Amino acid sequence: MTIRKLQPQRIFNGQQLLEAGTVLLVDNTGTILDLVPANQAGDNIEILNGWITPGFINCHCHLELSYMLGVIPEKTGLISFVKQVMQNREIAEEKQQQAIQIADQQLWNQGVQAVGDICNQTATLSTKLSSPITYHSFIELTGWHPSVAESRYQTALKCEKAFATHSLRHSLSPHAPYSVSTKLWQKIRPHFSQQPVTLHTQESADEQLLFENGTGNWPLFYESLGIGHSEFEPTGKSSLQSVLPFMKEAATVLLVHDTFTQAADMQWAHSYHPGICWCICIRANQYIENALPPIAELRSIGARIVVGTDSLASNYSLSILQELYSIQQHFPQVPTPELLTWATYNGAEALQMNKSLGSLQPGKRPGILLLNNLSMEGQLLQSTEVQRLW
Ligand SMILES: [Zn+2]
Fold first, then answer.
1. What are the residues facing 52 on neighbouring strands?
2. 189 CA distance to ligand 1 centroid (A)?
3. 112 pLDDT exceeds 90?
4. Most buried among 32, 44, 58, 303, by the most CB within 10 A?
């Protein structure tokens, strides 16, 4: 067995920066053997420039939309964005497959070890089967009118069967509070038990109005599509408080975007469900709503934060490093080790992959990355690069 002994400037183990001078021992499969001080590591130590970190976890992506790169204009708001995604759903299969494969390769080259990927169909299946990336496929359900609940449920079960046949990790997940009827929630709820489940949450201010009193632009959106909404009864509560109880039995709940989430909702959700994870997709938020996620508020309650890219329909790349750089540009008070915790350890926990990924612990094979060109103070720079060692 060949052992490599790596001594970078600093090692980030998934939760903290280790003391300078620590050496990482790795075997030729990328399995972590040990972390020891340099004076106990013997000879043949490789000195590296930069920080070592475990592979990144991208908690929110839609690989099947990769062909939409550059198609939808920026900053037109969520409702306009959703309309345009629906209009651009028809695509030649070959073109879609090609875009999925390229995106998968880019994710890997940019240091991503695992992805929480939203699926409305089985288009990503063949790429996932041959990818070195570990995927958790969230098979997504939408259906605002109760009359479509049964057919949408059956379609999702078929999709689920395809992923299960190939032993690919997966779970059923609702799309968003504004697009799932109570009847559909009731059908999918039994599938959530002990699973990671995800939900697009409070991505527009209109979502709150819909649940509070049935106003805002979502009813108009459904009318424009000829979809009735008269059976929906506003709850008088926030959208999050209205739907999170349906996911009570889930192991983890990845709340994605949260751009318009209020502090009271954060505190409530934090104490209501021990598996809550807040998934930040800052570049998509800017692309779609020209808004920023409530990172300061989430940090102030000690929330578990994870990071996603959303799809290439609302982003220019699927690079987690670019997401972290962008977060630090807008929130310079967040230190780099904390950002890296969101993108490694916390992400692995959210997707229930922490037994093998997310941290540099002996026995794990989490992927090993080298971050180059950080500032003297350890801040991310535009020129910071990620290089995959394993
Ligand atoms: Zn999304």
1. 11, 370
2. 20
3. yes
4. 58
